[in-house]
Amino acid sequence: MPVNPREMIAALNDALTIKAGVMPSHPHPLAEQVAEMDMKDIAIIAGELTAIEQGRRPTNDAAILGMGLTRSDFGMAMGDAMSYLAANRYDAFADHLPLCADLPVADFKEISFPDISADVALQETRELQEHTAASVIPADGAVKAQLRSYGRIINVSRQSVINDDIGLLANIFASMGTSAARIENEQVFTGLESNPNLQDGEPLFHEDLGNTESSALSAEALASAVGKLRTMPLRRDEPANTKARFLVTAPELEMPAHRLNREHGNRLEVIASPHIKTGRWYVFADPEVAPVVQRLTLKGASGKPVMIEPQKRNITFDGIRLKARADIGIAITGRSGVVRGGIE
Q: Which of 190, 285, 192 minimizes the C-alpha distance to 247?
């Protein structure tokens, strides 16, 4: 039975993903069949569909191919497929993600974080007694953050489609996910290394706050830092009692950190970043329990910061124009979930 061209176009995004070597979790029923075709032949089918809709058919395949390349659902399918690849690469590269708590925001406006350093706690209330109120109010000099967009236009030429260069295209667009992960990683760790003031006007790290360990990484220093996560005082003089989950280090300490962790039962997950100062290390709690770093995400988005979208046709370029865009924002808003180690 002949396959409906519209159904083939509907399967195209999954088909392109399969052609690039990645199997989607729930592929279109026709995806594998379409994936066996060259991109040129798929574009010609899309062009034939446009010709039928417009009631005119050019006499040569080159013109039909051009109509297919400019068809909106063809561009959208390619954008969706490349977004999938970019998101997979982002997940594979974004080592910092486990340290971050996601914070959905409505738009790209700057936001101010309220003074959460008071660590509002429940209070006992007798029968018929009013509960004590606590207000969420942005403090003077409060931590501020906003989403910012990073992007690049990628022109996919007609010849690339004719050559069926899906592997080349896959690598190019997947690298947009790598780039987004690198940008976020740099913002997370340069932010930590800058030791910013938090909403209470005090620095993120200070000896008087109980969240520094001024020793080189060792079993004894790590044990002390893990203990400080438990005993770090909150504003109402109650110990934070947070459990260590991550050991985060400068690059040259990554392998010693793995060895040290293995010797003590692999209780921590080791993460390293080139944006951490030589000799520096951190112990983090689970961000679900004590968030330190918050990653801004646009409400309604998938949670992946990078996406690939088709762009309007440029009459000076013969092919498909796609825009790679990443919306990224990082804020450091708490200290009860981290201890900084290393000799200053």
A: 285
* pTM of this structure: 0.87
What are the tokens at 29? 């029923």
201-214 per-position pLDDT tens digit: 889 999 988 899 99
> Beta partners for 284?
246, 338
Q: DSSP string spanning 133-193?
A: P----BPTT--EE--EEEEEEEEEEHHHHHTT-HHHHHHHHHHHHHHHHHHHHHHHHHHHH
Cα distance between residue 173 and residue 90, in whole Å: 11
10 Å CB burial of residue 161 (0-12, 13-18, 19+) is buried
What is the rounded CA–CA span in Å between residue 46 and residue 25? 25
The pLDDT of residue 112: 85
CA distances for 311 relative to 149, 160, 324, angstroms: 16, 17, 10
Give tens-digit pLDDT for 124-169: 777 767 766 666 565 555 688 999 999 999 999 999 999 999 999 9
b/e string for 107-123 if b means 16 or more Cβ within 10 A? eeeebebebbbeeeeee
Angle at alpha carbon of residue 38, lines to 34 and 42, rounded to 5°: 60
Cα distance between residue 228 and residue 285, in whole Å: 11
Residues 6+ apart with CB under 8 A from 172: 154
- End-to-end distance of the chain based on CA atoms, in angstroms? 73
Burial readout 230-261 (b: 16 or more C-beta within 10 A, e: otherwise): eebebeeeeebebebbbbbbbeebbeebbebb
